[in-house]
Structures are given as structure tokens and as C-alpha cells.
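User: Could you go from structure to sequence for me? I need the amino acid at each position, not a summary. C-alpha cells:
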């Protein structure tokens, strides 16, 4: 039994070409794989695409109206010529048959998306920010409002293609005549020309302009993330709907903190004596200001103290990450005579203890660039 191509598009058997096109576009917007990833929707999209291909072709539609199925006929009789749609199409193409007409393209088409890059420091990424940016895009012509015509004039049918949007040429070959179709060079495939175009946009329906846009960056954005501003991109040809504007965030390196997702890392330098005895230091956090950090007695070089909930906010939930303080124990490079004597006395008192013996016999490793440089290389790769 032949497929019900009219039923697939939801139109009657006597539907006009424009009604069929409108029905297909409506269904395609709902079922296109880019919009609806469901497998059932993808299969349905293929069915309506096949139905539109058949019903938009007068010859294939005639076969449907006679009770046949042109796609099944092509598959059964095509053999090695399935790419041509069946043996009938092959003979028509080589021996002067009618070439399939694509029809004119719409003069009004959707605009392209635009991309803008914005550099933000870590504080701006943490708190969110609203900034004015300058964009240079195509906007709707304010003189003709997208019509492309001057005053009350209207487009007229292209004399070259007769409104079809394409022209056909016939060439002789060893197998006979070969007919090919290509877009009309006069109207660009639209099927219409504008004899009296708008003085401002020259018939395009849009003009280039520089404008200011307010961009709201939410708290928690990170490097490489994009913020979408709907319908703020390029206006389409003929005054078609504008595309979207994407603002891509580039995060500047911070002199103190290194970011790892929602967590922050920093290096806290502590004198050797304070690390041994214990102390309290102040860390100037991004969102919380000065925070006291307790350094326990006996803190070793490279130890990490974590402050929960003092990192970056999560982009969607707002939950804060953690702040990790990496302890860098600073050994004095210059000592006076009294300091030297005190350290020697301390060494004599602790000689033979397990802790000192482990420190004296442990493996030494050299690290260049300092602890903060190593942190940055670990979490950023720079």
C-alpha cells in the first residue's frame, strides 16, 4: 500500500504548493534533530522530509494522486542508479526529460549568529557584572523596514527566469541532450528583482551599524564559557529574523589565586618559626574580604589548609567552592650571630629524635619557580 504523503504533512489532497510548504516548515521546526533529539522525532522528521520531497515535485505528486508511490518505484527500479531516483529519471536527464525544479528561494532569510569576546578578571567572574559592549552588525533598515524597495514600489517577477529562481540549460552529449539547472544569475534564485531599490540599503533590507548592548554576565562564569543574547546578532537578508549574539568569556590570570573549577588555590608564606610554633595569618578572599587562617604548630612545607565555602560560586546553583591555602615555609637566608647560636643549641637538643633524623636523612628535591608557580602549572597548564 502506498504511503499517505498528504497525511504525513497533515494537508488535504487538494492543498496548494504554499500550503504544503507551510505545513512542512511548521513540522520541521518541531522535529528537526537540532531541536528535538528524541529518536522518534528524528524518524518522523525523515518521513515528513520525504513527503515534502514528493509533494513538491509535480511529477512525483502526480504518481501519488494516481495511487502509486514514487519513492518505492525508484527504489525497486533504480538498481545501481538509485542516486538518480530511478531509471526513469536517468533517461529523462540524458534524453531531454524535465529536470526537477527546486523553485525560488525566499528573499527573507534568517540572519547569522555573531560572536564577541570579553575579558574579565577573577573578581568580575565571581560577582557577575553588567557591561556595555559595542557590536558592529547588520540591523533592519529603518527606511524601508526590510522591504528593500523605495517608497511604495514592489518587487517584480524576474524576466530572466520567469519567477522560477533558476535557469535551465541543455547540452548535447554522446547520449543525447543533458538538461541542467542553476540559480538565476540576475535575481540570485529569488525569482524577483527590485527595479526601484531602497536608497539606504540598496534592496538588501538591512544596513551595517554600530550599536551599544548591555550584557549581563552571571556570577560563576569561567574561561571559555559563552553567554547567549537571543536575536541580538545579524539581521537576515530581506529583513529576516536576527541571529543570536554569543559573548565568550576570557578570564584574566589573577596575581594571588589560581582557579580550579569552583575552587580557589593560593600560596601562604609562613616564617619557619611560625610554622613550628603555630600562628594566625590573614587571607584576603575574593568575595569575603580578610579571613583569618590558623596555622597549626608543626605545619610542614606544602601542607594545605582548606576553608570550606570561600571559593567561587557555582554558575547555576550559587553554591560556593572551597579555598585551599598551600603553606610555603620560608627559611631565613641571613642570620646574625645570636640567631645562629640559638639554632645550634636547638639542633643539639633535638639531635637523635625521630623527626629530625627523618628530616636529615630524607630525599631532597629541587623545585624551580616557587610554590605559586607550581600551583599555576598544576591547575592551568601555564
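Assistant: Here is the amino acid at each position, in order:
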Amino acid at each position: 500500500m502506498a504511503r499517505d504523503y498528504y497525511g504525513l504533512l497533515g494537508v488535504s489532497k487538494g492543498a496548494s504548493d504554499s500550503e504544503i510548504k507551510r505545513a512542512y516548515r511548521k513540522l520541521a521546526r518541531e522535529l528537526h534533530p537540532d531541536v528535538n533529539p528524541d529518536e522518534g522525532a528524528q524518524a518522523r522528521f525523515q518521513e515528513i522530509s520525504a513527503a515534502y520531497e514528493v509533494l513538491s515535485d509535480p511529477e512525483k505528486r502526480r504518481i501519488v494522486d494516481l495511487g502509486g508511490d514514487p519513492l518505492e518505484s525508484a527504489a525497486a527500479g533504480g538498481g545501481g542508479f538509485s542516486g538518480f531516483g530511478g531509471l526513469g529519471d536517468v533517461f529523462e536527464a540524458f534524453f531531454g526529460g524535465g529536470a526537477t525544479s527546486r523553485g525560488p528561494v525566499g528573499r527573507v532569510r534568517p540572519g547569522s549568529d555573531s560572536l564577541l569576546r570579553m575579558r574579565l578578571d577573577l573578581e568580575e567572574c565571581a560577582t557577575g557584572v553588567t557591561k556595555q559592549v559595542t557590536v558592529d552588525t547588520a540591523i533592519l533598515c529603518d527606511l524601508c523596514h526590510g522591504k528593500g524597495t523605495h517608497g511604495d514600489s514592489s518587487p517584480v517577477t524576474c524576466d530572466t527566469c520567469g519567477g522560477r529562481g533558476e535557469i535551465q540549460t541543455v547540452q548535447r552529449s554522446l547520449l543525447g541532450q543533458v538538461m541542467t539547472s542553476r540559480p538565476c544569475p540576475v535575481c540570485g534564485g529569488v525569482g524577483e528583482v527590485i527595479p526601484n531599490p531602497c536608497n539606504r540599503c540598496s534592496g538588501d533590507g538591512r544596513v551595517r551599524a554600530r550599536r551599544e548592548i548591555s550584557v549581563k554576565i552571571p556570577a560563576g562564569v569561567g574561561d571559555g564559557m559563552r553567554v547567549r543574547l537571543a536575536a541580538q546578532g545579524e539581521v537576515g537578508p530581506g529583513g529576516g529574523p536576527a541571529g543570536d549574539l554569543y559573548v565568550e568569556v576570557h578570564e584574566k590570570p589573577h596575581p594571588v589565586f589560581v582557579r580550579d573549577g569552583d575552587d580557589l588555590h593560593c600560596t601562604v608564606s609562613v616564617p619557619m618559626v611560625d610554622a613550628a610554633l603555630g600562628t594566625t595569618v590573614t587571607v584576603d578572599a575574593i568575595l569575603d574580604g580578610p579571613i583569618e587562617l590558623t596555622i597549626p604548630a608543626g605545619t610542614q612545607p606544602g601542607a594545605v589548609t582548606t576553608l570550606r565555602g570561600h571559593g567561587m560560586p557555582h554558575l547555576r546553583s550559587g553554591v560556593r567552592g572551597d579555598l585551599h591555602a598551600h603553606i610555603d615555609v620560608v627559611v631565613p637566608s641571613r642570620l646574625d650571630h645570636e640567631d645562629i647560636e640559638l639554632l645550634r643549641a636547638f639542633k643539639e637538643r633535638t639531635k637523635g629524635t625521630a623527626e629530625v633524623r627523618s628530616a636529615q636523612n630524607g630525599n631532597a628535591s629541587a623545585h624551580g619557580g616557587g610554590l605559586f608557580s607550581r600551583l599555576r602549572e598544576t591547575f592551568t597548564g601555564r
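One structural detail worth keeping in mind: The first helix runs from residue 5 to 9.
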